[in-house]
Design brief:
Distance between the termini of chain A: 56 Å
Number of domains of chain B: 1
Radius of gyration of chain A: 22 Å
Structural class of chain B: mainly alpha
Oligomer: heterodimer
CATH superfamily of the largest domain in chain A: P-loop containing nucleotide triphosphate hydrolases
Helix content of chain B: over 70%
CATH architecture of the largest domain in chain A: 3-Layer(aba) Sandwich
Helix content of chain A: 25-40%
Number of strands of chain A: 14
Number of helices of chain A: 10
Strand order of the largest sheet of chain B: 1-2
Largest interface: A-B, 55 and 47 residues
CATH class of the largest domain in chain A: Alpha Beta
Number of domains of chain A: 2
Distance between the termini of chain B: 39 Å
Strand content of chain A: 25-35%
Largest sheet of chain B: 2 strands, antiparallel
CATH topology of the largest domain in chain A: Rossmann fold
Radius of gyration of chain B: 23 Å
Order of helices and strands of chain B: HHEEHHHHHHHHH
């Protein structure tokens, strides 16, 4: 007799969540699952409702309707118990800038209710995770933007949360610092921490997320593993056709007539799902379809 | 490289919701949450205490010296007291106002709007009610300390010490709690920091000048005296004077009751106003 496969537990479960601000539907019937131990990327253009969703998970924004459960706690009623078990790295840097790196962590060992004996080891661990051991006595206003961002993540991890919310964790950082943070986030995920990460950097989601939910106008427009989303929505190959604007318009028109989907990329027209087609296509460069193609296709950004 | 590739069971969704492993015990007005907010304030205070202490002690001392000696040169006695003693006891209320209402108004607004400090705190297991309560307790503690400065200055200039004065820190604390909550309430209600001048000029300065600090209200028309009883600073002034010069049982109990009521009412409104600002 075989036992049933065990169902994964969900760190986050959202069903039909709605949040209006006056006439603006910030979140409009949004569903989301984050299985425990996975990293889910919440991908969407600015104004898609990502930040509002993140704030609903800490009950700083209260949904008008729908169900929200975080680590088994129903929100907003049990949000405090949920917050005790999760860490949040906000989009806006809200460190205490006149305090030292270590003092910022110390404050959060209290806010996260660590016992007296746990505080010192927790601070040491967080300093190591964030690679800030040497800068522990530096004031936050004296350290670089990348270090501040690492400190924000370390602060969110000081109590070893089961769930980490990362709201645009690498926005505004240079590529090298971004890659450092990716390594840090990847290590956390490998340790079994559940992660929900909102981002509008496609590469970030592609590299770090087990599954991606693409959000547009307050709704989930697609959910799945990055590679599956690509083949499902935009095919395997893309043909980039370059040329002057008039030529691009011509290519778009003929593609539309043949039922081939296109997107403008600024300097070119990308013809999607062209695998297996050769002779009838205009001259161009073939490349593999990316998540960016899917993103643009589904969110309507830049699409004609 | 995906984690799911190594742990396929994680890829499935639609499963059941997990139950809390740690089962954190959280309730309303938790001591742990209050302690967390207080620790943050105390650690931060270590970086700015000089400026705050300077302004909180300097301003009322200047009032005391200017009125006590400037005005005192033409009015030596008032209501049976030396004028310096009269003003020295009265400016305790002024010191409480300066060290409670202003830091609460500006500090709360800056933390809510510019530094996003409360976003960080509210991500932890802390609610707005705990933020308001802890910050008001901390500011009240400071007001309880700074409030004594004018009294000490007045003692240097000849005010006789009395055992009753040992209660002045507590009077200043209770009064300071109310003014801290008043300040938090204003910062919660106002959309811009520039609107604070309406409160400073339209409410706080008139209340400060009609509290009985610099001149007794007893010689004023009865209507003004009744209005004076609605001024929380007046109750603080009276209690401190009685602590220095002799208690009056029933009136003093009434003053204590008025300060407690002021504290409770402003506390509840402050919680409501800041919640409205922070939770949308």
């Amino acid at each position: 007799m075989t036992s049933l496969p065990s169902m994964p537990e969900l760190a986050i479960r959202l069903r039909s969540v709605v949040k209006h601000y006056g006439r603006i539907h910030a979140v409009d019937g949004f569903d989301l699952d984050v299985a425990e131990g996975t990293c889910v990327g919440l991908l969407g253009p600015n104004g898609a409702g990502k930040s509002t969703t993140m704030k609903m998970l800490t009950a700083q924004v209260i949904a008008d309707s729908g169900e929200i459960e975080v680590l088994g706690h129903r929100l907003p009623g049990d949000s405090k118990a949920a917050r005790a078990e999760m860490g949040v790295c906000p989009q806006l840097d809200n460190l205490d800038t006149s305090l030292t790196v270590q003092q910022n962590l110390l404050v959060f060992t209290y806010l996260y209710r660590l016992g007296r004996a746990e505080r010192k080891p927790a601070i040491e661990r967080a300093l190591q995770v964030a690679n800030l051991v040497d800068r522990r006595d530096a004031k936050v206003e004296e350290i670089s933007g990348g270090m501040r961002r690492r400190l924000l993540i370390a602060r969110a991890l000081v109590h070893r949360p089961r769930l980490l919310l990362l709201d645009e964790p690498t926005v505004g950082l240079d590529p090298q610092v971004r890659q450092e943070l990716w390594a840090l986030i990847d290590a956390l995920r490998n340790d079994g921490t559940s992660i929900l990460m909102s981002t509008h950097y496609i590469e970030e989601a592609e590299r770090l997320a087990d599954t991606v939910t693409i959000m547009a106008r307050g709704r989930a427009v697609a959910t799945g593993k990055p590679a599956h989303l690509v083949t499902e929505h935009a095919g395997r190959e893309v043909l980039e056709v370059y040329g002057p604007p008039a030529r691009l318009a011509e290519v778009e028109a003929s593609a539309a007539a043949e039922g081939v989907r296109t997107r403008r990329t600024g300097t070119s027209v990308a013809m999607l799902g062209v695998e297996g087609r050769n002779g009838d296509l205009p001259q161009g460069e073939r490349r593999t379809t990316t998540l960016e193609d899917v993103f643009v296709l589904l969110t309507g950004e830049e699409v004609r | 490289m995906s984690d799911v590739a190594r742990r396929p069971e994680l890829a499935r969704s639609g499963g059941r919701i997990g139950s809390s492993r740690r089962g954190a015990r959280v309730g309303r007005l938790d001591w742990a949450a209050l302690q967390g907010v207080l620790i943050r304030e105390v650690v931060n205070f270590s970086s700015y205490w000089r400026g705050t202490s300077f302004s909180s002690t300097m301003e009322p001392t200047v009032y005391l010296l200017a009125f006590g000696f400037g005005f005192g040169s033409i009015v030596s006695q008032i209501g049976g007291y030396d004028y310096v003693d009269f003003v020295g006891t009265g400016t305790v209320a002024t010191a409480v106002l300066f060290s409670a209402a202003f830091p609460a108004m500006f500090g709360t607004f800056v933390k809510a709007t510019f530094q996003h400090t409360y976003d960080a705190i509210l991500s932890a297991p802390v609610d707005t009610e705990e933020i308001v309560t802890a910050e008001a307790l901390w500011i009240a503690t400071r007001a309880g300390t700074f409030g004594c400065v004018p009294l000490l200055v007045a003692i240097v200039f000849g005010l006789d010490p009395a055992f009753g004065m040992l209660l002045v820190p507590f009077i200043a604390f209770v009064s300071g709690f109310g003014w801290a909550c008043f300040g938090i309430m204003i910062s919660g209600l106002m959309k811009g920091i520039e609107n604070f001048s309406y409160v400073t000029s339209g409410v706080l300065t008139p209340l400060m000048l009609t509290a009985g600090t610099f001149f007794p209200l007893t010689n004023l028309p009865q209507g003004v005296q009744i209005l004076g009883n609605l001024n929380p600073l007046h109750h603080c002034v009276e209690l401190v004077r009685h602590a220095a010069f002799g208690w009056e049982l029933w009136p003093d109990l009434a003053h204590v009751g008025a300060l407690l009521a002021f504290g409770v009412v402003t506390w509840r409104i402050a919680v409501w106003a800041l919640t409205r600002k922070l939770i949308t």
